[in-house]
């Protein structure tokens, strides 16, 4: 396009011609070129503004007011809700639990998903069967998963403690101790999401050109070497996607801890109360939407921080492409230093 | 929700399709219909929770009223139902035509009385015990809800385990045993100590918090000041707390409704439970196949009421008159007796309570105990109905957790757990 336009604009005759009346049609045409692409993509942004941005801003508005669930808006209180929430030990317990459950679920989950995907990518018999199989846990409703797992993890009558008992291991307090409860909840999350992430990785793996592997095989690289030198670097964009989405999901975790016992409040000493559970408690049990909204915003900020952090970390995953880029950057930096020295 | 929207669209289509005159007519028609039940086909929705024993009754009502279709939305727990209730009330839409509510939600219903239809009518005057009606009546005398059932408490016990521990085991002697020395809570715990001393490791009751429920239900205003509604703990709450935790050796250390609690019914987990009438169905369900359960017609410290529900008709309802008639029918004596027979929900109706049919009811699972008669006496013994304000739910939850930290988790001692509880209560206010 650009090369075509340039000569017309520069051509002398057009300037000598009497100024042409620009017809409405032509204006429309120009608008069409300029505006249409934005219109085509606008449904997403309009939808986002309605269901994403508006609630976000409105939550911010609620968070600086006294706001009862049933009574509605009260006085403007500034950041009082935030300072109240930050002063509550329960908030910090929730933060600790959320981060701990997030780490216990996301890290093993991504690693396991990668390994499963690599196995599914190999030449298997009945490929589709295995591939659909890993998605099966994802189809099970989270509430059902939580019910089954909470039966398994019951402190006295649970299956897992019974098995441990047979092995001569003391029963673990899955509900009374902090870390075991986090492990139990993380296992529910992993059960549900590992297969889903594995399929995403698998799709990305299938897109890697096969000749890369052929060349590597010819060069005598082992399967493991190929996995680390070709598969992982080529998966980088997908990994960023998976890690960011699992960060968002992991920090918002709600269903599993809520269903982990009958009361749904995260344990008697809040052993497994996550931030979303705390938010729910403030908003719906204590009917204070203002404080709940403040928690929502704090959670939002936390997710942003973690998403950025993870993005930075995943970018470091080695790739040839990346190495040339850093090399270029380094060269540029040296040149710049030389220039400034002069 | 979806239904109303569709109906609205249909109405809108009608408006544009026909002429203005026609719409004016249809509008007034609708008004006439709702005041006098007619042949117009309507759908009524009702939402309940746990088990109200209504399934057969709803079918019966539809047969009696062929123009009415009833949709039943059943929540698993009252907590779930309450969450949906609050959200829908706040949103101004989403409530059923007839909404079952628990007595503990009454404060917010009274607070938003204008969102509920006044249910006063000639057919229901004098229907219920005064104290139940009072729970559902505003200060201006508006009746906001029809009581469906109450929860008079008795003691359910395992006769076989009592006998094995050398205690009397038949209904009458157990009643006498619990009523020795004035029959208050001290005697209850004393019987417990005697039992545990001879029971070969079988705990006495299921959990300290469950027993605490029975004790708290005998305080006039456990957590809040009835006049101001502000949080003010009755000093007796701490006494109850201390008594319970001094006696944790009687407890099987189970949290009620928890997985371990449910399973404990199958392996002699404990010998005694405080049982409001509706608990009988729960025990029977969990203890299927276990023999030896019985009920003693007694309760420490007099009587007690645990729970009880109501039916309301929110102003959100499109068919308030029909909904009111439906709720009226459901809470009439005959229907309450049928519900009692299916689930053990004890009638809140005076007429039903006095009926010979009720007096003759027995329960096979509980060694053919005359449950009708027992719970009738128990309901007459109810003398205190605690005040429950806006913060009752939250404070009660915090207290449960404080007790369970010591009794169930055993991760805390009584004093530190109480301190944590006090912090939590401060955060609620």
Automatic annotation (TrEMBL), chain A:
One GO term describing the cellular component: plasma membrane
PROSITE patterns given in the database record: ABC_TM1
Residues in coiled coil: none
UniProt-listed SUPFAM superfamilies: MetI-like
Residue ranges constituting the ABC transmembrane type-1 domain according to the UniProt record: 95-310
One GO term of the biological process aspect: transmembrane transport
Pfam families reported in the protein's UniProt record: BPD_transp_1 (PF00528)
Listed Gene3D superfamilies: MetI-like
Stretches for region Disordered: 1-20
Origin: domain of life: Bacteria
Transmembrane parts of this sequence: 38-58, 99-120, 132-154, 234-254, 292-313
Membrane-protein topology: Multi-pass membrane protein
Record localization: Cell membrane
Keywords linked to the UniProt accession: Cell membrane, Membrane, Transmembrane, Transmembrane helix, Transport
Protein family (similarity comment): Belongs to the binding-protein-dependent transport system permease family.
Protein name, UniProt field: Sugar ABC transporter permease
Gene that specifies this protein: cebF
From TrEMBL, chain B:
PROSITE patterns assigned: PROKAR_LIPOPROTEIN
Entries under Gene3D superfamilies matching the protein: Periplasmic binding protein-like II (3.40.190.10)
Highest taxon above the source species: Bacteria
Organism in which the protein naturally occurs: Cellulomonas soli
Record key words, sorted: Signal
Signal peptide residues on this chain, from the entry's feature table: 1-24
GN (gene name): cebE
Protein name as it appears in the record: Sugar ABC transporter substrate-binding protein
């Amino acid at each position: 396009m650009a090369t075509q336009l340039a000569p017309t604009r520069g051509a002398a005759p057009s300037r000598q011609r009497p100024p042409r009346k620009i017809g409405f049609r032509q204006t429309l045409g120009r608008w069409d070129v300029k505006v249409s692409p934005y219109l085509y993509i606008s449904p997403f942004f309009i939808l986002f503004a309605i269901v994403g941005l508006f609630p976000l801003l409105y939550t911010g508005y609620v968070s600086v007011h006294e706001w009862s669930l049933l009574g509605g808006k009260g006085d403007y209180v500034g950041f009082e809700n935030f300072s109240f929430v930050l002063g509550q030990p329960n908030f910090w317990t929730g933060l600790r639990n959320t981060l701990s459950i997030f780490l216990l679920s996301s890290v093993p989950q991504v690693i396991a998903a990668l390994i499963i995907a690599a196995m599914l990518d190999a030449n298997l018999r009945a490929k589709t069967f295995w591939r659909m199989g890993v998605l099966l846990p994802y189809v099970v409703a989270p509430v059902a998963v939580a019910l089954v797992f909470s039966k398994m993890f019951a402190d006295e009558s649970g299956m897992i403690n019974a098995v441990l008992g047979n092995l001569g291991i003391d029963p673990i307090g899955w509900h009374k101790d902090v870390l075991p409860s986090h492990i139990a909840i993380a296992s529910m999350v992993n059960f549900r999401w590992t297969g889903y992430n594995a399929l995403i990785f698998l799709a990305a793996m299938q897109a890697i050109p096969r000749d890369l592997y052929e060349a590597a095989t010819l060069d005598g690289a082992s399967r493991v070497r190929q996995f680390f030198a070709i598969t992982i670097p080529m998966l980088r964009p997908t990994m960023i996607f998976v890690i960011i989405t699992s960060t968002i999901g992991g920090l918002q975790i709600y269903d599993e801890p809520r269903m982990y016992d009958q009361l749904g409040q995260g344990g008697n000493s809040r052993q497994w109360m996550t931030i979303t559970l705390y938010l729910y408690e403030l908003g719906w049990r204590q009917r204070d939407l203002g404080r709940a909204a403040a928690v929502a915003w704090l959670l939002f900020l936390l997710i942003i921080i973690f998403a950025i952090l993870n993005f930075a970390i995943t970018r470091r995953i080695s790739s040839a492409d990346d190495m040339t880029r850093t090399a270029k950057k380094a060269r540029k930096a040296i040149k710049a230093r030389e220039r400034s020295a002069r | 929700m979806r239904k109303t929207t569709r109906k609205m669209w249909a109405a809108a289509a009608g408006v544009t399709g026909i002429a203005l005159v026609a719409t004016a007519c249809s509008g007034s028609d609708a008004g006439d219909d709702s005041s006098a039940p007619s042949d117009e086909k309507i759908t009524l929705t009702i939402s309940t929770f746990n088990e109200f024993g209504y399934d057969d009754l709803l079918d019966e009502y539809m047969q009696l009223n062929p123009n009415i279709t009833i949709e039943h939305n059943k929540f698993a727990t009252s907590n779930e139902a309450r969450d949906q209730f609050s959200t829908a009330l706040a949103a101004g839409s989403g409530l059923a035509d007839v909404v079952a509510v628990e007595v503990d939600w009454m404060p917010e219903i009274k607070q938003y009385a204008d969102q509920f239809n006044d249910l006063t009518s000639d057919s229901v005057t004098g229907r219920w015990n005064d104290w139940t009606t009072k729970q559902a009546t505003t200060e201006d005398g508006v009746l906001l809800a029809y009581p469906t059932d109450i929860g008079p408490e008795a003691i359910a016990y395992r006769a076989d385990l009592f006998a094995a521990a050398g205690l009397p085991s038949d209904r009458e002697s157990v009643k006498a045993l619990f009523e020795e020395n004035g029959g208050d809570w001290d005697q209850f715990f004393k019987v417990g100590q005697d039992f545990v001393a001879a029971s070969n490791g079988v705990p006495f009751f299921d959990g300290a918090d469950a027993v605490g429920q029975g004790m708290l239900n005998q305080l006039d205003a456990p957590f809040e000041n009835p006049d101001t509604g502000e949080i003010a703990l009755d000093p007796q709450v701490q006494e109850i707390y201390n008594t319970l935790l001094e006696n944790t050796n009687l407890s099987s250390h189970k949290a009620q409704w928890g997985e371990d609690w449910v399973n404990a019914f199958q392996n002699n987990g404990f010998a005694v439970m405080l049982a409001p009438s509706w608990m009988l169905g729960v025990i029977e369900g969990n203890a299927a196949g276990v023999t030896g359960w019985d009920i003693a017609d007694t309760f420490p410290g007099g009587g007690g009421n645990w729970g009880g529900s109501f039916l309301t008709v929110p102003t959100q309802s499109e068919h308030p008159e029909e909904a009111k008639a439906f709720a009226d029918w459901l809470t009439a004596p005959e229907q309450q007796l049928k519900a009692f027979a299916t689930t053990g929900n004890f009638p809140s109706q005076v007429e039903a309570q006095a009926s010979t049919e009720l007096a003759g009811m027995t329960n096979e699972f509980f060694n053919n105990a005359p449950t009708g008669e027992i719970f009738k006496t128990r309901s007459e013994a109810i003398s205190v109905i605690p005040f429950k304000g806006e913060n009752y739910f939250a404070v009660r939850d915090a207290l449960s957790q404080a007790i369970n930290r010591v009794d169930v988790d055993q991760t805390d001692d009584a004093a530190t757990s109480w301190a944590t509880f006090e912090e939590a209560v401060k955060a609620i206010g």
